[in-house]
Amino acid sequence: MVVHSSSFVQKWRLILVELYGYESYMEYLIVPSIIGKKNLSYLPLLSYTDKEVSDIDNLVELGKESDYLIRAVNETYIDFKDGDTVTMRLDLSSGSYDFIYKNHIHSKCRNQIQKSLKSKLVHKIGAHELLEDFYMLFTKTMHRYGTPAFTIKLFKLILEKLNARIIVVYKNNMPIASSLLIFDGDLVIIPWAASDYKFSKFCPNHLMYSESIKYALGNECTIFDFGRSKYGSGNTYRFKKQWGAAPIKIDMLSSNKDDIYSKYSLASSIWKKLPRIVVNSIGPKLCKYLPDL
After folding, report:
1. DSSP letters spanning 57-81
2. Are 39 and 69 in contact (CB under 8 A)?
3. How far is CA 104 from CA 92, 97, 117, 120, in A?
């Protein structure tokens, strides 16, 4: 069972109130839409939830007269099917990177970690001093995926108000992979990661994640959360699985029964084709109106 800090949710809410001016409704934040409609969202814009399915009856009751979105962890769910929304979590309770490396990480992944070590890559772990390198990679990656990128101010606030760190991997002083680590009690999550695909042959993501796991162990974390994926499909899910991460079901409870990801798919395909100068200008403004990214 993951132990969540009591202040994490409150701090996240304060970040979004400061950034976007969101108003509160009990445990929800009110996220406006572009057309003026209001949506209730619990932990909007964050690919993470501290709620379990047994804890959300009150939230559902509060939101039943409105449009709402709640994510909840369903740790007892075992009948996974392709396309289920899951988060991928690696057990760090052994406290030993060597144990995890030998017993959890798949052989192919271990080979790629070794390749990254032979590629003369350098990594740094820090905070504000690494933000520009992280953000440059983040905006490029989001454009490639067809997703608007948050304003850099969001990450500045995260580094100021949460227990968070940035890791960046360099090749010849050039940033080629990066991620943000956020700590919540004995759990560490990576909600956003980015890389320059032109350098993928050097396996920078493998160095980034292996060093992130070591850092999490050094901070006495027992769960490493790789973030949200679709069960059984896609390179992202397979990448996380090879680290020994196991799927945990995320129930998406919404008054709107439409598949939110299907709704975004057309917009995403168009977004990929827009010039970088356009998406970098309007993307951060657009994120305010998207309750789930």
Report:
1. HHHHHHHTTS-EEEEEEETT-----
2. yes
3. 10, 10, 19, 25
| CA neighbor of 138 nearest in space, from 82, 196, 183 | 196
Q: Using one digit for the tens of pLDDT, what is the confidence trace for 19-48?
A: 999 999 999 999 998 888 899 999 998 888
Are the CB atoms for 169 and 121 separated by under 8 Å? yes
DSSP codes joined into one string, 4-63: PPTTHHHHHHHHHHHHH-PEEETTEEEEEPTTS-EEEESSTT-S----BGGG-HHHHHHH
The type of residue at 147 is T
pTM over 0.85: yes
Cβ–Cβ contacts within 10 Å for residue 256, how many? 11
The neighbour count for residue 114, using CB atoms within 10 Å, is 13
CB 147 within 8 A of CB 271: yes
Q: Are 151 and 16 in contact (CB under 8 A)?
A: no
Structure tokens at 66: 């409105």
Closest alpha carbon to 146 in 240, 265, 41, 38: 265
154 is written with which tokens? 């969001």
What DSSP element (H or E) covers 287? none
Residue 2 above 70 pLDDT?
no
